[in-house]
Amino acid sequence: MSNTNVIENFIAGSVGGVFTVATGQPFDTVKVKIQTMPHPKPGETPLFTGALDCVKKTVKKEGFFALYKGMAAPLVTVTPSFAVFLGGCALGRWIQQTKPGEEMTFIQNFNAGALGGLFSTIVTVPGERIKCVLQVQSLGHSPIKYDGPLDVVEKLYKEGGIRSIYRGTAATLFRGECLKLFSYIKGAS
To answer: What is the pTM of this model?
Structure first.
């Protein structure tokens, strides 16, 4: 394997990340709208009766592209994550192979997938942390502490430095590694 294969996999991961976000964003938008719609009072009909009703009403009221609202944040995190994962897997294969095109063992595939997963976790954790902090801040009885993603980064960094931004890395790494390793080894077989 040459260094260009690492770069090719990095680019392929970037393209894959963009397409994953582009195809998944409407589903995520519908999910969030349904999860956050107000509970109807007795005798009232719910805002949406299901996913298709949500799509229909959203497109009618806000236009087709309303299904893609909020897509910038996932593009910024998912695209590099995919790129770094596939690039890391290719690098892991390249490091372990003694000659190009050599058949990889199960353990070598495991190691390559683990390296890719480790790299992608490093990229993913800050975005996950920011998203989670913003999602749960409205659940408490305290006033809203963060005004948006950049405010979260600024305040977390002031409170605890880079460690505060990367809090939860071990759990995210374990969650991500299991799935990524399975997917990578399954695909490499």
So the answer is: 0.66
Can you give the residue range of the structural domain that contains 98? 3-188
148 and 132 in contact (C-beta within 8 Å)? no
**In contact, 25 and 68? CB cutoff 8 Å:** yes
Residue 1: strand, helix, or coil = coil
90 in helix, strand or coil?
Answer: helix
Pick the residue with more confidence: 145 or 161?
161
Residues 86-115 pLDDT 10s? 899 899 988 998 887 788 888 888 888 889
Q: Based on C-alpha coordinates, what's the Rg of the chain?
A: 20
CB 108 within 8 A of CB 96: yes
Residues 66/59, Cβ–Cβ less than 8 Å: yes
**Tokens at 89, concatenated:** 């897997």
Separation of alpha carbons 67 and 59, rounded Å: 7
Banded pLDDT at 53 (limits 50, 70, 90): very high
Q: Which two tokens stand for residue 56?
A: 């229909």
Total domain count for the chain? 1
> Is a pLDDT exceeding 80 seen at residue 150?
yes
For residue 81, the one-letter residue type is S
Taking the C-alpha atoms of residue 46 and residue 38, their distance in angstroms, rounded to an integer, is 8
